[in-house]
């Protein structure tokens, strides 16, 4: 059989450790395993159907990225949420996303229409925090898709995984969505008017408002007493 060169594409094989890392990260963003909990390697290995070697490699990768902690003799633990980390993450994302928008060419009418559609999808997902969080992420990704600085965009993506851990926990526990729909509309109005600078300032404010919702809840969580563990009664 003969295939035209233009029809042949290389088969991309994703290393097992990369796929395991992706699944673990997606689970942590959903709160499973929960912040502060330990990782049972044997159980996880059986659940994912992989050997301990790629699992260990994936776990060590997540340690390096700041999602897990490795304790000698005790194993791996999901890092707890902290007020300090949230206070650091959100201003950085506000600065980096606004920089990316300022570095982007003006969006076309088609691109603005796409952003409007994504924002409408976000507005329709008020009762589903997980879908709403994905819709909000898609909106921001589309907004910055024309930024030519790929290293800047990659830095934003990496840091946003950490922010998503906080936002999903907030939405899961409070039952409240951090609604950005109105803020997105204001950004779109500025873009339609050709005012990139105003849109960038509004985008920066979008992150600061999210932080204002999140930090009081985080401080309350930090101040709350730990749950009391009941001792098991011994059988006579």
Give an overview of the whole structure.
The chain has 236 residues and is mainly alpha-helical. The protein folds into 2 domains: 16-78, Arc Repressor Mutant, subunit A (Orthogonal Bundle); 83-221, Up-down Bundle (Four Helix Bundle (Hemerythrin (Met), subunit A)). Helix content is 64%, strand content 3%. The protein is built from 9 helices and 2 strands; from the N terminus they run H-H-H-E-E-H-H-H-H-H-H. It has a two-stranded antiparallel ribbon. Strand 1 (68-71) and strand 2 (75-78) form a beta hairpin. Helix 1 (16-29) crosses helix 3. The longest helix has 28 residues, at 196-223. The protein is globular, with a radius of gyration of 21 Å. It starts with 15 loop residues before the first helix and ends in a 13-residue tail after the last helix. Mean pLDDT is 88; it is low at 1-8 and 231-236.
List the helices and strands and how they pair.
Elements: H1 16-29, H2 41-48, H3 52-64, E1 68-71, E2 75-78, H4 83-102, H5 109-124, H6 129-143, H7 150-174, H8 181-192, H9 196-223
Antiparallel strand pairs: 1-2
Name its key features:
236 residues; mainly alpha; Arc Repressor Mutant, subunit A; Four Helix Bundle (Hemerythrin (Met), subunit A); two-stranded antiparallel sheet; 64% helix; disordered N terminus; disordered C terminus
Shape designation: globular
Radius of gyration: 21 Å
Category from helices, strands and their pairing: mainly alpha
Lateral arrangement of strands in the main beta sheet: 1-2
Main β sheet profile: 2 strands, antiparallel
Task: Quote the distance from N terminus to C terminus.
Answer: 77 Å
CATH topology grouping of the largest domain? Four Helix Bundle (Hemerythrin (Met), subunit A)
Helical residue percent? 55-70%
Number of strands: 2
Q: In percent, how much strand structure appears in the residues? A: under 5%
* Superfamily (CATH H level) name of the largest domain: GntR ligand-binding domain-like
Q: Could you name the ranges where pLDDT drops below 50 across 5 or more consecutive residues? A: 1-8, 231-236
Q: Quick one: CATH class of the largest domain?
A: Mainly Alpha
Q: Element order, helices and strands?
A: HHHEEHHHHHH
How many distinct domains? 2
What's the CATH architecture name of the largest domain? Up-down Bundle
Question: In DSSP terms, counting alpha (H) and pi (I) runs of 4 or more, how many helices?
Answer: 9
Can you give the mean pLDDT? 88
């Amino acid at each position: 059989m003969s295939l035209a060169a233009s029809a042949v594409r290389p088969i991309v094989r994703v290393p097992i450790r990369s796929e395991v890392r992706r699944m673990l990260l997606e689970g942590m963003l959903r709160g499973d395993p929960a912040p502060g909990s330990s990782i049972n390697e044997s159980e996880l290995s059986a659940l994912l159907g992989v050997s301990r070697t790629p699992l260990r490699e994936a776990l060590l990768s997540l340690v390096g990225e700041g999602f897990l902690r490795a304790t000698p003799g005790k194993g791996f633990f999901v890092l707890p949420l902290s007020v300090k980390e949230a206070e650091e993450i959100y201003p950085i994302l506000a600065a980096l996303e606004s920089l990316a928008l300022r570095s982007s060419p003006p969006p076309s009418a088609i691109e603005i229409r796409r952003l409007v559609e994504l924002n409408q999808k976000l507005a329709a997902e008020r009762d589903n925090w997980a879908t709403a969080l994905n819709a909000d992420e898609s909106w921001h990704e589309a907004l910055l898709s024309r930024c030519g600085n790929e290293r800047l965009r990659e830095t934003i993506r990496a840091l946003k995984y950490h922010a998503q851990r906080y936002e999903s926990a907030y939405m899961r526990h409070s039952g409240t969505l951090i609604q950005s729909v109105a803020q997105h509309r204001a950004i779109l109005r500025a873009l339609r008017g050709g005012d990139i600078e105003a849109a960038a300032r509004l985008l920066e404010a979008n992150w600061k408002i999210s932080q204002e919702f999140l930090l009081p809840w985080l401080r309350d969580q930090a101040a709350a007493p730990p749950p009391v563990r009941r001792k098991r009664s011994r059988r006579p």
